[in-house]
Amino acid sequence: MIVPVQVAERFTKEINDHPHVEVGGKYVGFIRGVARHDTLEERLRAVPGLTFEVVDYIDDGPAAQRTAGFHRGDPDWQTAEFRRLEAARPDIEQLGSWHSHHPNGLRELSSGDVHGYQETVDDLGHNHDYFFVSLGVDLKGFVTARHYLFIRGSKKYVELPMSAFQITDGAPDPAVPRETEPEAPGSPAPPEPREQAGPEAPRTEETPEPAPDPPPREVPRQARTQPRAETGEHLSVRGWTDSRPGLDALRAEREQLRSPEFAHVRLSIGQGRLLARGWLDTKAGRVSMSLLYPSAIGGDDGLLKLSTLDVPGIDVTLSGPQTRNLVTARVLIGHFIRYADVHRPLMRKDPDRQSLLQSIKNWF
C-alpha cells in the first residue's frame, strides 16, 4: 500500500475538524499487478504481488449523512466526481474507502460495514477483485487507523499490518476534485518512500502469506501520468498478442478506435487484460465507457461499464457475448444511449429514481 503523506494528513484533519460525527471518503488510485482472477484461490495467491497506489480520496459530498454512530457518503455526487476524474485519467480505479468511528469509541468494523464492503467487492460492477478499507478509531487519525483488505468471493477479510504500507512524500493527485481546490487534471510528483512500522495484525485462515517489504523506489512520472500503452501500439497481453488470430483481432480493435465515436477511447492494460477506456460524446451527454476484453479471443468473460457523467447518473455493467470487442459492444452502447436520452429528463423530475434505475436491465 503506497499512501502519500498528504493523504494521511488530510484523513487526520478531516477527523479532527469533525470530532462529533463519523466522516470518510472514497480512495482512488492505481493497482499494479493482475487484479482480476477467476477463482478465490487465484485471488488470494495474487495478493503478495499487488501494489495499491492511493492517489487521493473523494470527499463525502454535500448530501452525506453523518452522525456519531452512522456514516453514509453522497453516492451520486461521489460517482459523478469519479466519472469526471476517470474521463481525464482512464486507468484510475476506485480502490476502496475509509470512514471513522472516533465519536463512538468502536475500534472495529460494524457488521453493517462488513456486509456492505463484501457486497461491494462481490458486485460485478466493481472493476477488480479487491477493496481496501481504512477505519479511523480516534483523533490521531491515520497513524492509529486500522486497515483491511476485502477479497471477491471471500466471507473473511484481512487486516493489514503497517509494515505493508509505504507512506510517501509524493503529493496527492490534483485531478481529484475537492471543495476548496480546482478540478483540473494533473499528476503527482514522484514519491520518495518513507518506512512506517507497526504491530503485525492477527491472521485468518484465508490470509495470504505476507510479502516482504518492497524496497524504496522512484515511480517514473510517465508511468503515473498516462495509461499504460495508451495508444495501444505496443501492448503485450496474454491471449491477444501471443498468437496470429489475437494480433489480427487487436488490429481490428485499433481500426475501430479510429472512428469518430471512439475518439476519446484508448487501449491500455488493466488487471493483465486488454482494456478500452475513455468517454463518448452522445445525444444523452458525455458517457464514460470501460470495456474489459475477454481473457481469450471469443470468450464470454468480458465486462462493459457505461455511465452518464452528469447528475442524475445512470450506470450499467454488462457481460456476455456482446462484450467480446468494440463491434459487438456498439449494440449495447446504442441501447444505453437511447435509454439515457429518454429517462434522464424523467429522472430529474421523479424523486423515486430507483424505480427507473431498476428498469435498465429490462431494457437490455
Under CATH at level 1, the class of the largest domain stands as: Alpha Beta
Strand content: 15-25%
Shape designation = globular
Structural class: alpha+beta
CATH topology of the largest domain: Cytidine Deaminase, domain 2
Please provide the count of β strands: 16
Low-confidence stretches: 177-233, 351-361
Alpha-carbon distance between the termini?
39 Å
Describe the structure.
With 364 residues, the protein is of the alpha+beta class. The chain has 2 domains: 2-225, Cytidine Deaminase, domain 2 (3-Layer(aba) Sandwich), CATH 3.40.140; 244-363, 2-Layer Sandwich (Yope Regulator, Chain: A). The radius of gyration is 20 Å and the shape is globular. The strands form 4 sheets. It has a 6-stranded mixed sheet. It has a 5-stranded antiparallel sheet with strand order 12-13-14-15-16, sandwiched between helices. 27% of the residues lie in helices and 24% in strands.
